[in-house]
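The protein record quoted in full:

***
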Amino acid sequence: MRRGERPPVVPPGPTEVDGGTAELLGDADRDGSWVLMVEGTPQSHVDLDNPAHLEFEYVRRMGHVLDLAAPEGQPVDAVHLGGGALTLARYLAVTRPGSRQRVVEVDQRLTDLVRAHLPLPRDARVRVRAADARAGLAALPPASADVVVSDVFAGARTPAHLTTVEYAAEAHRVLRPGGVLAVNVADGPPLRFARGQVATLRAVFAHVCVLAEPGTLRGRRFGNLVAVASDAPLPVAALTRRCAADPMPARVVEGEDLARFVGRAQPVTDAGAVASPEPPPGVFSR
């Protein structure tokens, strides 16, 4: 091996982590790329040769949000709630060098597996704390982050306590003025959960939009919607252009269209929260 080259990844096979069984599978279609599976569900995709490549469509949409959160290349202070294989932390490390990033991941053994076999980019300033996402968020200082990304799953569902007004208010507290929150929302027909999540964010933030593939948005199939929230106006036109140019184009819904999407859905509070719906069998299989 030449000096400076990265040693080849040797996947350890199925490994017991706090959340069940995790496995790293090589991507047969892309050299140097790996998929992290947890309990049979794909949790993350990582391209070690090109960390700026985002394979999962909803993660690509989150990448668009991060790209537009500050002037191109400018470092940001980022908080990632849910770590997985640290895909977006790697992305920011190479697209915004010098960014300071804090990751809250409840599964310490999962983090150990990822860091042992999928090394972070050189000079990445990423700190990972083993904690529940909401507890980790509550421990952060106010106005200390430019972006917060919430992408947390226990198995294939988002825990109930991470779906509420109180949780969104903690993210609002941690964000600086004009900071941006991006939330992965997994739902299917009739999108009752997703509508409630948008209503929840609208109760806390002045501006909200949703990025989603049209079939998912119309309630035709189970999928991932990305909800984006800020107290500053969102770059809707730029997001629309980027989402439309993706391999799987997505729509950006805001304003009156978003109000119609929400309908009569009410904000979710801790007292009435439920976890996100269980995906249909095989929907995330590889």
The longest strand covers residues 175-187. The chain has one domain: 50-266.
